[in-house]
Design goal:
Elements (H helix, E strand, L loop, with lengths): L5 E3 L4 E5 L4 E5 L5 E2 L5 H6 L3 E2 L6 H4 L2 H4 L10 H11 L13 H8 L5 H13 L1
Antiparallel strand pairs: 1-4, 1-5, 2-3
Helix pairs in contact: 4-5, 4-6
Length: about 130
């Protein structure tokens, strides 16, 4: 029996295989196997093939590492920026506002519509 390919994320993240409800949760820096059906989705969302020679800290966005008061939105603006750069129209409402569930998928935690609205207003102002 062969050893399964392992994958790793530089940040805590949950990957969702659209239309199936199948998820894979990644803890930052902890290698784990993936179903074959999830590999392309995971790689598209920033998951890497595990290589012990890769310095994950060097790949981690500084905003995730900073313990800065400027990050009072707890990463919601960063998640919004990631959704905007991803360009998936399913992540946004008809008015252009990101869906709460889409932000939660990136953050791997629940947020409120109020938190989304505040972060979205700040994001648009920048």
């Amino acid at each position: 029996m062969s050893t399964p390919q392992l994958f790793v994320s530089p940040v805590d993240r949950q990957i969702v295989l659209e239309g199936t409800g199948i998820t894979a949760r990644f803890e930052a820096g902890v290698p784990r196997p993936l179903r074959k059906s999830m590999i392309n989705t995971a790689i598209a969302q920033g998951i890497l093939k595990h290589d012990p020679n890769i310095d994950l800290a060097a790949l981690t966005p500084q905003a995730v590492l900073d313990d800065d008061e400027d990050l009072a939105d707890d990463g919601i603006q960063r998640a919004i920026a990631e959704l905007v750069s991803g360009g998936n129209p399913d992540d946004f409402s008809k008015s252009g506002k990101p869906h709460v569930k889409s932000i939660e998928r990136v953050l791997c935690r629940d947020i409120t519509a109020g938190e989304r609205d505040a972060a979205w207003a700040e994001f648009e102002a920048e």
